Sequence to fold (541 residues):
Amino acid sequence: MSPEAKTPTRNYTEAQPIVSIRDLKKSFGDLVVLDGVDLDVEKGEVVVILGPSGSGKSTMLRCVNRLEHPTAGEVWFEDTLVNYSKTNINRMREHIGMVFQQFNLFPHLTARGNVALALRKVLGKSKEEADQIAVEQLERVDLGDRVDYYPSQLSGGQQQRVAIARALAMDPHVMLFDEVTSALDPELVRGVLDVMKELALAGMTMLVVTHEMGFARDVGSRVVFMDGGVIVEQGTPEEVFDNPQNERTQDFLGHIM
Amino acid sequence: MDQLAVWWEANTITHLFFSPSVMGEAFGVILKALPVSLLFGVGAFLIGIPLGLGLAFMKMAKTRWLRWPATAYVDFVRGTPLFLQILLVFFGLPLFPFYKVVLAANPWMNDAALFNISWSLYFRGFLVLSFNSAAYLTEIFRAGIQSISRGQMEAARSLGMTVPKAMMYVIIPQTVRRILPTMMSEFILLFKDTALLAAVGLPEIVLRAREVAAAKFNPSPYVLASLFYLVITIPLGRFVARLEDRLAQAEGGGGAVAPPPDDPLPIDSEHEIARHERVVDIGD
Ligand SMILES: Nc1ncnc2c1ncn2[C@@H]1O[C@H](COP(=O)(O)OP(=O)(O)OP(=O)(O)O)[C@@H](O)[C@H]1O
Ligand SMILES: [Mg+2]
Fold:
């Protein structure tokens, strides 16, 4: 038996939630950041996570691919318990793409190099194959003419699209987006959101932390509102935006809109 | 012309420090010693690089059992004179029972090798110099690795890379570019420090210069020896300065838009220092 066989597993079919978060708690020292979060994400869903600054949105997202270690609770991805010490986390992360607010492109590599690196070093593809996939993915985010540019030669919006291509190239089953347009000049936001929308239409399962209410309403299949480390309210965009039940949600949306 | 030569040798200053005849004699001798100094400088530096990298990772490790020995070692080496370390190694090591056994089993170690220097002298010379520069390189590497933003490691790990892979393909390549100038300055220091090996009889530039100076009772060879060092150090120093400029420009973007500043690190009261120190420590 392989070592992974020791990992707690659950039966998983595509009819079930691809990500299940159960009573997730996370503290940094004495600071309780997540205080019991439950969330199921169905395959193909676009779950938009809203909430005030410091409410724990990023922390929750980062628990999904274990960039943060949960203090308690369970995070399931497909058939595997993510926050279990024997889980092969690197194998899991191959299937969980993540895009960051600050892009985090590798500055010493070109756009193509950024996308190709993990294809070669993680998936073991040949340089030719990796480069070819990289170019395809860059074309997909409309950067076919920028493959040989270094990150410092690209605009913020272009950099963020390279970052999306880099994650997509791994053929992830879920994509995590953490305020990916917040560091962009307003005129560059559109291009990135368009790419994300196309991705959603293509059926990608997405968890999106954002302050872009237009995107949430337009693309989100579900909107989740977090505050104080818990999910306060969730529902379809219409439910949450047009008829918020919780006072804190009303308050938050009142400030934003 | 003849008059000038007579005056030159009669004048105390010019005769003592710039005597053409003494320098002429010393030139060939010192020229032959130059490769020895270069060999010890370059060789010890190259050995010091992996040692320093290892020590840097030890200093950044989670467990104190790695951190503490590395810290103690680096503090000792950087806090004591190299001359003292040379004396310790050159006169202390041969007294070690283990070293005696090794030497007895391998008598060839006392044979003269390249440049008429014995293996055991080479061994001790490289040992003390490479371990010395390793300590300084440790701090350079550590500072360099920690200057790479956390997000780089997170991005690499989120793509499924292991920590060693992320280090190898993402963190180290960026670090090297950033610290190259500092490393080369460190090399210049080490190269100059090879002169201290004269004190334990290693026939490098200064020892040879001293031999001629003593024989001629004239310090001109020392002046000549300085010129030999300067021929190496000044161009290298200029090169470092140019490199620094170039890298500074490259970091500044060179392109249309500079990358946005990184998120300030979140502060975790309990692990505040540790978090800031360890780029390696993410997730697992
Ligand atoms: N590594 C860390 N160490 C200590 N505290 C942290 C760490 N990461 C996050 N925090 C704290 O946890 C709380 C929640 O942070 P988180 O980043 O999850 O909030 P957020 O909802 O994403 O906020 P924002 O909208 O500002 O991004 C904040 O108070 C933050 O300071
Ligand atoms: Mg956040």
In short: Chain B has one domain: 20-283. Residues 20-283 of chain B form a domain with the MetI-like fold fold (CATH 1.10.3720.10). The radius of gyration of chain B is 24 Å. The interface with chain A takes residues 149, 151-152, 154-162, 165, 169-170, 173-174, 177, 250, 253-260, 262-263, 266, 268-271, 282-284 of chain B (CB under 8 Å).
